[in-house]
Hints:
The mean pLDDT is 91. By secondary structure, the protein is an alpha/beta fold. The chain is 35% helix and 13% strand. The chain is globular and about 55 Å long. The N and C termini lie far apart (55 Å). The strands form two sheets. The chain has a four-stranded parallel beta sheet, sandwiched between helices. A two-stranded antiparallel sheet has the order 3-4. The chain has ten helices and six strands; from the N terminus they run H-H-H-E-H-H-E-H-H-E-H-E-H-E-H-E. Bound molecules: zinc ion (2 copies). One zinc ion binds next to helix 2. The site of one zinc ion has 8 residues, from helix 2.
Amino acid sequence: xxxxxxxxxxxxxxxxxxxxxxxxxxxHGSVCETCWHGVRRVLPPSxxxxxxxxxxxxxxxxxxxxxxxxxxxxxxxxxxxxACDYQGELRAIxxxxxxxxxxxxxxxxxxxxxxxxxxxLDGADAVVPVPLHPWRRLRRGFNQSSDLARxxxxxVRHLLWRPHLTRPQAGLxxxxxxxxxxxxxxxxxxxSGATRRTRITGRVIVLVDDIMTTGATLxxxxxxxxAAGAREVRALTLARAVLAIRHR
Length: 248
Ligand SMILES: [Zn+2]
Ligand SMILES: [Zn+2]
C-alpha cells in the first residue's frame, strides 16, 4: 500500500482537489491532510434551534440556548446543527465536491456532518436532502445534499422537490432571501397519498444541506414538511456562511 502510494506520488503526482499541492498519500483521498486540518468546526455553545454558535456560555441561561435571530423569528424547524465554518480550506473542499464533481468527498464530509449532528439525528425517521431545481440537478449531474445525506446511516427520502427556479441567494438581504425561496419548494408530486401518510405524517425528519447562511432555504423546506404533517423537522448543515450583502 505504502509502495503504491509512493509510486503514484512519483509517477502521476495527483494533486489535492482543494489546494492543488502534490498529494503525499494519494490513496487516502483527493484532499491533503493540511486542508482537512484547516477545517474549522463549529464548537459549542450553539443555538439549539438553528445550530449557529452562540457568543459564550456566560451570556446565556440554560433556559434560552437560542440565538438572537431565532428568538426574534423562530424558524419552522425545531432543532438544528451545523458542522463547520464555510471558510478557507472547507470552502475549497466543498467547491471541489460540488463544482469539480469530486463526489468521493461526500464520505469524509459526511463524517463531519455525523459528528456534529449526532443529537439532531437521534430518533430521526428519515433524512431529506434539500432538492435542487431539476435544471441545476441536470447541469451538476448530482445533488450534493443527497450525496451527503446518504452517508448518515438514516433512510434517505426524497420527499421534496423544487419546481421553481429561484435566483441564487448570494448577495441578497435576509428579507429577500426569505421571499426568494418562500414558494420554491413543495412535497414531491410523485408521492402517493399513502406514502405521504407513512413517510411524513407524525414523522421526525432531518433536512440536510451543504451550506446555510440565514437558514431561509431550510425554513422554507421545513414549512412544507410541517404543513404536510411532519411531527418534527430538524436541520443538519455542513457549513455556515456569514451573510455578505452586495450593495448595488
Ligand atoms: Zn490541500
Ligand atoms: Zn438560532
